Amino acid sequence: MLLRKVLLLLALGLIACSSPQGGPAAIDPAHDNTPMDVLFAQDHRDVATLCAFLLDTNATVRRDAAIALASVQDTAAGACLTKALDDPDALVRRDALFALSFIADSILLQRIITTADAEPDTAISRVMHEAVFRAELRTRPRDAVFLISYLESTDRDIRTRAAQTLARLPQEQLVPATDDILQAFEVEHDPNVRMFLVGALRHGTTPEVIQLLKRLGTNDPLPMIRVAAVRALSASQDAALAGYLFDRTNDSASIVRQAALEQLERLPPPLDGEAAWRAGQQHDRLAIKIALYGIALRDGDEGTRNAARLLMRSMAEQDLGPYRNADLITAMAWDPDEDRSGELRAILHAPRTPPEKQAAFSALLRIAGNAEGSTTNITPASAMRDALSTHDAGLIAAGCEALAGMDSTQVRAALEPGLVEQARSALHPIRDLEAVQLLDAAEARLTGRPSPTHTAPPFNHPIDRGRLAHLRQGQRYLFATTKGDIVLAIEPDAAPGTCVAFDSLVTAGYYDGKTFHRVIPDFVAQGGCPRGDGYGSMDWTLRTEIGLRGFTTGAVGIASAGRDTESCQFFIMLAPAPHLDGRYTRFAHVVSGMDVAERLEVGDVMERVERTE
Questions:
Q1: What is the largest CA-CA distance in the chain?
Q2: What is the mean pLDDT of the chain?
Q3: How confident is the model at residue 379, as a pLDDT?
Q4: pLDDT at position 372, please?
């Protein structure tokens, strides 16, 4: 046990950093210092040195420098990267354009369009045009007509990015485009693009759209499409859909069941409490069963409420584990006949797990928001004070997040004199960085100052050249989970610093016993938090590393609280998410067990994680 702790402490100090695929070549510290010099400059965000490397006589060094500047994303590099667009090496031109796409303004946009159009190498031209499209999305107003025009592209990645961006437009832009979206859906064959186009139909109210969404949500062979349809159909917030969603909680695919439950919980009450009770009785998934009982307790008749209450009390006498206990706290707080606010406040200060405390705080906020006409003395401000006075970093962060949605009067009522200082004294400046940032934003609102901009912590880890030299591209790691095995392959050519940190944590046994605390169907499964609620981190941070590969299905990235704040939490992509490209570090990909990843649920455990080759 002592040896394991010593190994863990040693491993947490071994972090390395650098650049991406199409970036640093394999490093031999004994013979070649230049790649390490590029990595050092990237880690220290040294634009001048990286620009100097763009003039190196070695084309590999120039490529390293160009792709390193994609991680730095500093407009000060615009001039040297623009010159690199004329480099004689096609890969340097590609990587320089890629880096420019993250910082381009309207003037630079025209320059990179010209470069992409003139590129004679078709494979490189394709990558360039994908980067150009990303830059266009950054620099020009987004409208449905513009995005729909790109759905005719022969490049699948461009169509995917266009469809996802389209699906994120507001209602006033999507409704007039409904017919065009339907037409694009009918001729599209790529499942990822189809998924996003289904999402773009979420504001369609015609019988044709409703019928299509119901059919897709029930019968489409791909779970990802069924999830998208269930979500799109439920965007209307029509309580009459509850029966349909109760049925979908029995779908054969875990992600569809989870999505249906998500949407049920978002529908405005009252729902059919008796139907929720029956659905809960028939369900074999404990998390869904508990949530359905909560709806029955909230919306059922007196007999149904009594039955649900007694059953959940019986369940609460057992220890169902942190996440199911949290589900019970959430569900039982829906009881309209009992004021549970005192019990919930006690949980915040009790020796309970972070997921249980987060559930209690969320329930308190909900009760406070619905307190008008009730006997409870809980207000949103008092719930905030409870959270911030716990000295618990996760509750402080959650409380400050909730404050962001409140008016200035509520903020002043919540942040009593001395409370901010008291909360801040409990936070570690690096490990609790997200809570620190949120508290800074809350204090700014209290004093009427503008919300502070994100500032990355200083670089706090040197590059371990020896460890990096022994990591190879495609090194595999086995995650033995409660749902089955998942095998990842790391990409140190793209994210060397992140890969070294990950390897250090794995070999120290850090991930053994950790959980997946966040699962969003058609998006991500996230785990590795030391707290188990998503607010935990380490005493160090990593630099954001950006490579050419994007966040496609099966990609593995590192969670962050803003640029250059990455640490130990990772996420597996359950679907493409091109909006994450350039913002988060991709460091690995799933090579087997993607079907297992798609079955993951909140609370599933990484029983054992190890390097396999």
A1: 81
A2: 91
A3: 87
A4: 53
> Positive or negative, the Cα torsion across 480, 481, 484, 486?
negative
Look at residue 485 and give its three-state secondary structure.
strand
Consecutive H or E run containing 588: strand 585-592
Residues 126 and 69 reside in one and the same domain: yes
Same domain, 349 and 483: no
Helix, strand counts (H, E) of the chain: 31, 8
CA-CA distances (angstroms) from residue 530 to 22, 500, 510?
33, 19, 9
Residue 491: which CATH number? 2.40.100.10
Tokens 């004994």 correspond to 30
Of the candidates 135, 232, 260, the one whose C-alpha atom is nearest the C-alpha of residue 174 is: 232
pLDDT, position 25: 42
Residue 268 inside a domain? The answer is no
* Residue 85, domain extent: 33-139
CA distances from 524 to 201, 485, 536, 546 (A): 22, 17, 18, 19
Burial (CB < 10 A; 0-12, 13-18, 19+), residue 268, is exposed
274 in any annotated domain: no
**pLDDT by residue (tens digit) across 487-537?**
999 999 999 999 999 999 999 999 999 999 999 999 999 999 999 999 999
Compute the distance between CA of residue 349 and CA of residue 440 in angstroms, rounded to an integer: 23
In the chain, the number of structural domains is 3
pLDDT tens for each residue of 230-264: 999 999 899 999 999 999 999 999 999 999 999 99
The CA distance from 236 to 204, in Å, is 9
Based on the fold, state whether residues 473 and 594 are members of the same structural domain. Answer: yes
- Same domain for 98 and 51? yes
Write the pLDDT tens digit of every residue in 412-467. Answer: 889 988 999 999 999 999 999 999 999 999 999 888 888 899 888 999 877 778 88
Say yes or no: 426 and 471 in one domain: no
Last residue of a domain, one of 139, 155, 176: 139
Q: Do residues 444 and 475 both lie within one domain?
A: no
From CA 308, how far away is CA 314, in angstroms rounded? 10
Residue 292's nearest CA partner among 315, 334, 261, 323 is: 261
Regarding whether 436 and 471 lie in a shared domain, the answer is no
pLDDT tops 90 at residue 3: no
* 494 and 593 within one domain: yes
Question: pLDDT tier at 31 (50, 70, 90 boundaries)?
Answer: very low
Tell me how far the alpha carbon of residue 518 is from its chain's centroid: 9
Is 166 part of a structural domain of the chain? Answer: no
How many Å apart are CA 230 and CA 418, to the nearest integer? Answer: 47
In a domain, 180, yes or no: no
